[in-house]
Design a protein that fits this description.
single chain; 316 residues; 2 domains; six-stranded parallel beta sheet; alpha/beta; elongated
Length: 316
Amino acid sequence: MRDAPAGTPHVYTIAPDLDFTRTLADNLLNGNLPVPGGARPDELDLVNWTILVPTRRAARALMMAFVDGSARGTRLLPRIRPLGDVDDDELAAETVLGGLPELDIPLAIAPLQRQFLLARLILAWAHNNSGNQLARTVKSATGQALDLADSLGNLIDGFDNDEVDLNVIEALFGADLPVHKAEVLGFLDVIRVEYPAALANSGLSGAMARRSALIRAQADVISASPPKGPIIAAGSTGSIKATADLLNRICHLPLGAVILPGLDVDMDDDSWMQLDQQHPQYGLKELLQTFEIKRCNVRQLTGERGDRAGGARCWL
């Protein structure tokens, strides 16, 4: 692979037949991150590094990989954090120091609390819409309200992850509706109107909405006041809109890099351009478009083949 043009974002990938965790740790310890061919970090350097990973499990696995590398002089570990797992007080302080507006993100409603809130709103809707067939069904078997609340909660999370306003639901249904669709739209007022009002009255926010807000605040801090040491984001596919924005900012930093899992670098260009949303590589294709980098300029990190399945499970 040819060297990427100057100014190209620092984006790498690790092939699916490699142990992701071990390959990441080895390349960092060998000086290949955040830019290839760098000096190996000495035993005190790593404390100034920040590595963001998808899950707590991935963070633990990567920590163990660095511990295993201690024979090569590693004594202090980098800061390894799950994406979105942000300390509010620390982020608030960083926001102020970075000259950004004061952080004001409401706490998230607990999952069980949300389910019971939605169930209560569903039952209230059912009692006020006795002419609706779904309302009559709910009134005749009130236990269904909890099942419906769970389904509506998942729908809310999907909208929040994509940062789409729930009011778009009405536009999706159109203006001239048959009776059954009008009844469904009326039911969805539970999450389009009633639920946001109830959340606002309680001073809370949705868990996914709060996570996205925290990630965006973290991205703003990184842009306003870049960390003094390297910052690496590894293993994320950017499926959440806010996460994709954070990754984009990191890969454009002089000491930043993004490590993608299993990008298909061998697929021919025509097939790549024609990928649809059902293809497992589609999300990575969109992410590269966000980064404004060509697939041919994504560098491959090399490593030893090991327990591929075990390594992959840690990043799920």
